[in-house]
Write a structure and sequence with these properties.
883 residues, 9 helices, Immunoglobulin-like, disordered N terminus, five-stranded antiparallel sheet, eight-stranded antiparallel β-barrel, 7% helix, 6 domains, mainly beta
């Protein structure tokens, strides 16, 4: 019924706009012009006998003023708005009403379209009064704090007064700012902290009478500058980036600093509408407030950098100068302190001195109304998601990164990143131009340096002259290796300007401190890098960057007509350039093409991580299957810790059910090829009668894989697989944690008692070891119920999305609770697995709660006064088909 009413209203709005008089400037709209949030009831300016009401409307900018009426409903009670007054203005409008001193008036902004459809704002109140608030001047203005003054006239002593501060000018914006309250008195001052340097703020004195608010005039001030000292304001903890000594909006480690919503560029946004905040990653974007505040020297941390901080540093709850928080000590012994800054929602600050909430520049990819953050207190620390409007502290990190130099990455065969057809994998151009002072520090670490530092990333398509005009001039290979006696050997096969190849062999040394190479043979370079253009391709060759998937070596351009510059030669591993061959073999059924294979190319490195599909087209039907394998040639040799998972199988377009726990994975034949063995009468999956195995993945109840009829097909056999990781095969120790949260400020975001389980990889298969748990959490803050209660295991879902766990028992305050087991569900947050008992934001929200009926977002039946004990068991890593 609700949808029918809404449709009717939208249709009415459509008819109003379409059937208006022809001389009116109406546009034809296919959607409703306004919605419930379009009309906003604003503040009021009051005297003893009158009040000027403020309102705003958005969405009518293209409409003629004759198309709508704006105004206010008002009256003596919130449910008795019996009077109406038409306002003047447009997007912002006002109207004045009269009354007598001490009279309370309730009012509500409205907009009526053609006298037929009316939209209304919220109901607010005011009181006509002689009381006055006077805004004073700003004094003691610094880089991150200021003293603001106000005074009151004819004020009641039981009122609230203070200053409202905003980072955006405009009457309604300032009056919707953050309140800094103080006791009412004739004159007063408040200290405002957490400000940003070189920033203009707007403020107004206020007097809150309960039934209404009296405002002074709006004023502004601009903070002074603050120079962020790259040498002294950053701390090297031995991590991938340096961390600032203090929070954004602070100048010392014990100051709280500002509290910022996700993408809030002032720290004073009080809206709770997610549309008023960022909805995508803001790290190093225009919405990165840390990057903007300090001229690009620092940035907001990513959630990965937070994970590294909490994982690799030792953590200690301490007090520094009376301020509680976390002390982080890095692997190199250096440390930083983060105060427990709390958080702010609208104007209410909670948890200061008790909880640390710190914002990253990363959005929650599962729900962009939530940002990725880190929470800690004296008992625990964990990664969390927080609403984008919840304002948190920000601890900046250096824009420059401490990228580790790993010389072993050099030992492989390299080619210039350019194919004969002009295509490339990583670098748009095989040669980039750099300043003479550029090095590993600027290119890999992103450090700002004084001197001749610049980069022109010349693309090949527009600047082929840089390598002699042809991709053929970039052919050749360069292989670095270490001999058994420790000698560093290099072999270079170099194309010449005549199109022939010359091969050189020699040795080389690495200066790890300065990141340079010295060789007794010239490095691989474009054929036009000849003497007089580049005289030296052997001595102190700068290593600008070196990763698993790319390398940049710099030579000096010596052409006197061009002037000095460094020319970066951009390489990728030879394997990456041409990728890996994936083969799907479907042998069986006495077919003449039985040993043929379908083939596709898998990009090397991180570019290959993801989901791929390969389809075998048969010349002759398969009546059964005997050897069905997916091979990625050379993949296990290149990435010995890789994991490849089968996601779906189709025979002639129809789904084939399978139990992936019975497949075999890895370097099965010890030849460097990664194999997923689905069926093999001669391989791991062969069930000889003597070993007692009955583990065919394709039939209920098992049985020996000899002639598997489930694998029969007429023409096509399709396999969808995911390269999950090239650096981890998913095996290892995992620690389940209990999350139970009655509200944002209480409960636990990650409690465990040290219990772990193992995902075992043995004989090319995966299994679970010790998967039963009993976690007991004690707290006196959870009696009101739960907005979310679940078991969480980091990273597990990313490897095994078919993971299945079961809640065995739940005890609240020592008493066992009955529940509907069908509503305790497997779920996930990105790569984290969750066994979800209840989550007002998760899958149980729509599926229904196993423990009771939600009261809003809260399940009261999950409340406890002293303890929650959860017993659960992990049963499967792979989904079990319903045969």
């Amino acid at each position: 019924m609700k949808n029918k009413i809404l449709f009717g209203i939208m249709a009415l709005v459509m008819s109003v706009l379409v059937t208006g008089c022809s001389d009116d400037d109406y546009a034809i709209n296919t959607t409703a012009l306004l919605n419930d949030s379009s009309v906003v009831t604003g503040s009021a300016d009051v005297t003893a006998t009158s009040a000027t009401l403020h309102g705003t409307v958005s969405g009518l900018e293209s409409q003629a003023s004759s198309a709508y009426v704006i105004g206010f409903n008002y009256g003596a009670a919130a449910d008795a708005l019996t009077e109406r007054i038409v306002a003047t203005g447009g997007e912002e409008f006002t109207a004045t009403v009269s009354g007598c001193v001490n009279q309370t008036i309730y009012y509500q902004a409205y907009v009526t379209l053609q006298g037929k459809v009316t939209y209304k704002g919220e109901v607010k109140s005011l009181v006509l009064t002689n009381a006055r608030a006077v805004t004073g001047d700003a004094t003691q203005v610094g880089a991150n704090k200021a003293t603001l003054a106000g005074s009151l006239i004819d004020f009641p002593t039981d009122a609230e007064s203070g200053i409202m501060v905003s980072g955006v000018e405009g009457t309604e914006n300032v009056r919707a700012g953050v309140c800094v309250a103080t006791d009412p008195k004739g004159s007063y001052t408040v200290s405002v902290e957490g400000l940003l340097p070189n920033t203009t703020y707007y403020y107004v004195a206020y007097l809150d009478l309960g039934a209404g608010i009296v405002y002074g005039e709006e004023k502004s001030f601009t903070t002074t500058g603050h120079t962020f000292d790259l040498d002294n304001d950053l701390v090297d903890l031995g991590l991938s980036t340096k961390w600032a000594k203090y929070n954004l909006g602070a100048t010392s480690e014990t100051e709280i600093g500002g509290l910022f919503g996700f993408g809030d560029m002032t720290g004073f946004n009080t809206s709770i509408d997610p549309a008023n905040y960022a909805s995508a990653d803001i790290y190093k974007t225009a919405n990165d407030i840390a990057n903007k505040a300090f001229g690009g020297k620092v940035t907001m941390p990513t959630i990965a950098e937070f994970e590294e901080l909490f994982a690799l540093c030792t953590k200690e709850w301490v007090e520094v100068e009376g301020v509680a928080g976390y002390k982080f000590t890095g692997p190199n012994g250096n440390s930083i302190f983060m105060p427990a800054a709390g958080s702010r929602t609208q104007g209410a600050i909670a948890g200061a001195g008790v909880d640390g909430y710190y914002l990253s520049g990363s959005i929650n990819v599962s729900d962009n109304q939530f940002a990725m953050s880190y929470h800690f207190n004296s008992a625990a620390d964990t990664r969390v998601t927080t609403p984008v409007y919840q304002a948190l502290a920000i601890r900046p990190v250096s824009a420059a990164k401490n990228v580790p130099f790993v010389k072993d990455l050099l030992y492989r065969t390299w080619e210039i990143d350019l194919k004969s057809d002009g295509s490339y994998l990583i670098f748009p151009g095989p040669t980039y131009f750099y300043g003479m002072d550029d090095s590993w520090r600027t290119v890999s670490n992103g450090e700002p340096v004084l001197g001749d530092s610049w980069c022109w990333a010349a693309d090949f398509a527009g600047n082929s002259w840089a390598v002699g005009g042809s991709a053929d001039n970039c052919r050749g290979t360069m292989t670095f290796s270490k001999e058994e006696d420790g000698t560093n050997k290099v072999v270079v096969s170099q194309v010449t300007t005549e199109g022939t190849f010359v091969e050189g062999e020699g040795t080389f040394t690495i200066d790890e401190e300065n990141k340079t190479l010295t060789l007794d043979v010239a490095i691989l370079a474009p054929a036009n890098f000849v003497p007089d253009f580049v005289n030296d391709k052997k001595t102190d060759i700068k290593i600008l960057s070196l990763t698993e998937s790319s390398m940049q070596l710099a030579v000096v351009r010596t052409d006197p007509a061009q002037g000095p510059a460094q020319l970066s030669i951009n390489y990728i591993p030879q394997l990456n350039k041409y990728g890996f061959t994936a083969k799907l073999t479907c042998y069986g059924g006495d077919a003449s093409d039985a040993w043929n294979s379908a083939v596709t190319t898998i990009p090397a490195g991180d570019a290959g991580v993801g989901t791929h599909t390969i389809t075998f087209n048969a010349e002759v039907p398969r009546t059964f299957g005997q050897v069905y394998v997916l091979d990625i040639e050379g993949y296990a040799a290149a990435y010995p810790d890789a994991f490849v998972r089968i996601d779906a199988i189709k025979a002639d377009g129809k789904e084939v059910k399978f139990d992936a726990s019975k497949f075999f994975y890895g370097n099965i034949e010890n030849g460097g090829t990664y194999r997923v063995e689905m069926a093999n009468i001669w391989g791991c999956g062969h069930n000889d009668s003597w070993n007692g195995l009955k583990d065919t993945p394709f039939q209920p109840g098992g049985g020996e894989t000899t002639e598997e009829t489930a694998l029969a097909f007429e023409s096509t056999f399709e396999v969808t697989f995911t390269i999950v990781s090239i650096s981890s095969n998913g095996a290892g120790v995992y620690a389940p944690k209990l999350i139970t949260v009655p509200d944002w400020d209480h409960g636990t975001w990650g409690f465990d008692q040290g219990a772990t389980f193992e995902v075992k990889y043995e004989n090319f298969q995966y299994s679970l070891v010790a998967p039963q748990f009993d976690i007991k959490y004690e707290s006196a803050d959870c009696a009101a119920g739960s907005i979310m209660t679940f078991i969480e295991v980091a990273d597990l879902y990313g490897f095994f999305p078919g993971t299945h766990a079961v809640l065995d028992n739940l005890y609240l305050d020592g008493s066992e609770v009955t529940f509907d087991a069908t509503k305790v569900l497997d779920a996930n947050d990105s790569s984290k697995y969750r066994l979800e008992l209840w989550n007002c934001y998760g899958v149980t929200k729509n599926a229904g709660c196993a423990f009771g009926t939600p009261d809003g977002d809260v399940i009261k039946e999950l409340g406890f006064s002293t303890s929650m004990e959860v017993k659960f068991t992990f049963h499967k890593l792979f989904a079990v088909p319903q045969w």
